[in-house]
Amino acid sequence: MNRFAVTHLTDPDLTEVTRRVVTSFFTAQIAGDHEAVSKVASPEMTVWILGDFWWSGMHDLAEIAVIRDSWVGGLKDGGADFSTELLSVLADGNRASVETRITATWADGRPYESLCHYALDVADGKVVGYREYFDTAYEATYRQAERPTNA
């Protein structure tokens, strides 16, 4: 008996589908292509965001749009220099791990750079949910602490 035998292997075809879906999802988000995002995101997708900020916790797509708009509203020139770089995508079965680097300039001229990690779930060729992780201490020094009136 080989005591180092692998007893469980993830379906490589499912892993490849997940990798393609997640890469398409982030590529479309980075490009601001909402139509392409809607093709690979479930309409019932949920997003959980780390921390104890007003934007933390579980959200649906409508709430995420308000959070995104509030964040971009705090950037210089409406986020003209906002950039997201996709650093890595790792997939296994119907789950994926993604790392991004986000850079921008706040309206007051301060630079912003954050590395974020996302853990995603995919079903039937669509992203059905993800969890977003980042440096909460860094975010606390940069992001607005108060909930905007439209959130």
Describe this structure in words.
This protein has 151 residues and is an alpha+beta fold. It has one domain (12-142): Nuclear Transport Factor 2, Chain: A (Roll), CATH 3.10.450. The chain contains four helices and six strands; from the N terminus they run ααββαββββα. It has a six-stranded mixed β-sheet with strand order 2-1-6-5-4-3. Strand 4 (95-105) and strand 5 (111-123) form a beta hairpin. The mean pLDDT is 88.
Task: Walk me through the topology.
Layout (H helix, E strand, L loop, with lengths): L11 H20 L2 H7 E9 L7 E3 L1 H13 L9 E10 L2 E11 L5 E13 L2 E8 L2 H7 L9
Helix pairs in contact: 1-2
* Overall mean confidence score, pLDDT: 88
Low-confidence stretches: none
Can you give the helix content as a percent range?
Answer: 25-40%
Tally of separate helices? 4
Q: Look up the CATH topology.
A: Nuclear Transport Factor 2, Chain: A
CATH class: Alpha Beta
Number of domains: 1
Strand content: 35-45%
Task: Give me the strand/helix succession.
Answer: HHEEHEEEEH
Q: List the strand order in the largest sheet.
A: 2-1-6-5-4-3
Protein name: SnoaL-like domain-containing protein
Organism: Streptomyces canus
InterPro entries: NTF2-like_dom_sf, SnoaL-like
